[in-house]
Write a structure and sequence with these properties.
This protein is an all-alpha fold. Helix content is about 60%, strand content about 0%. The longest helix has about 30 residues. It comes from Leucobacter coleopterorum.
Length: about 325
């Protein structure tokens, strides 16, 4: 005979309550003190979309539109003729031939932009390095001196250079006093190039100075103490530190100089046709808005390629490059 143990009474207190999984709080976490929500940035986003992205979208759309039979504006018929006209020309019979005229304009603009960038870099690097090695108070004063040209309008500064370079200007008066005679400076490619260098020189100085301002130059002094030569210190210590500023300055100078309009027209007298003058003439005298928009899009694509190249370099080298002054 088997004896069964009596069943134990279950104590309600000993029973484990069913586990309940806490649901995550799907409500938005409150903003930290001093932090604004996304609604506060809505006006700025709308303004940015309207006045920054909006004109770019309009230009891109116009570049694929047709030209009206007469007058300016566009006809809302999709076509690739504005881009085809950049490289090819069709006669009255319908024969299409290669036309290098606009490529020459791009080549001249590219050459002036490259010369402007190279000269600005050669002048800016020693100046920025010298500024970064001064005392803090003197650095602030020197930065103020570099930014003083921004206080006046570009047209005013350009007209000042016209007064300096004309036949009765300071340069020609000094040249005549020294016995060299007067030189033809105004309304020449040299005057246009000089105006571009003067205009964009601060855009190269400030980024390089910003890269060098936080550098501890005691490291350079230690390299000198260890027997390194001056060019070795510059090449292996200072240049790597200044590289992000150099890249930023090159982009800030090259792209505006490539599409500049004021200096070639006022100082160069329009004798050298550059891409900025060509775009202005297409929207003005020629009244060919689609072709002018297509030229603007080509410049925009070049800028995007340059930005992508800089982003690729920044990711590969691990150096943060900011396109800012």
């Amino acid at each position: 005979m088997s004896v069964q143990a009596p069943e134990r009474a279950q104590d309600p207190a000993s029973q484990t309550a069913p586990t309940t999984t806490a649901k995550p709080n799907r409500l938005r976490t409150p903003c930290r003190p001093g932090q604004l929500g996304w609604l506060a940035s809505t006006p700025a986003i709308i303004i940015g979309l309207l006045f920054t992205v909006g004109p770019l979208v309009i230009i891109v759309l116009f570049s694929f539109m047709s030209r009206p039979p007469q007058g300016g504006g566009v006809v809302y018929d999709f076509t690739l003729d504005p881009y085809i006209s950049f490289l090819f020309q069709s006669d009255f019979v319908g024969n299409t031939t290669f036309d290098p005229r606009y490529l020459r304009v791009f080549g001249d603009s590219l050459w002036q932009a490259l010369v402007t960038t190279a000269v600005c870099l050669l002048l800016s690097f020693p100046l920025a390095l010298w500024m970064a090695t001064r005392s803090a108070k003197l650095q602030n004063f020197l930065v103020l001196i570099v930014t003083i040209p921004f206080w006046t309008n570009l047209l005013v500064r350009t007209y000042a250079w016209m007064l300096i370079l004309n036949d009765n200007g300071i340069v020609n008066n000094a040249s005549s006093a020294l016995g060299f005679g007067k030189m033809e400076l105004l309304y020449t490619p040299f005057a246009s190039q000089l105006g571009l260098i003067y205009t964009f020189l601060p855009f190269m100085v400030l980024p390089i100075y910003a890269s060098l301002a936080g550098f501890d130059f005691r490291l350079a002094e230690a390299a000198y103490d260890l027997g390194a030569r001056k060019w070795t210190v510059i090449r292996r210590i200072i240049l790597p530190i200044a590289t992000p500023g150099i890249i930023s300055g090159v982009l800030l100078v090259f792209m505006p100089a490539f599409g500049s309009y004021v200096q070639p027209v006022l100082l160069g007298g329009g004798k050298v046709l550059l891409i900025g003058n060509l775009i202005a003439s297409q929207f003005g005298d020629a009244r060919n808005w689609p072709f002018g928009a297509a030229l603007s899009v080509i410049i925009l694509v070049m800028l995007m390629i340059a930005l992508m190249a800089i982003a690729f370099y920044s990711r590969k080298s691990g150096r943060k490059v900011e396109i800012s002054l």
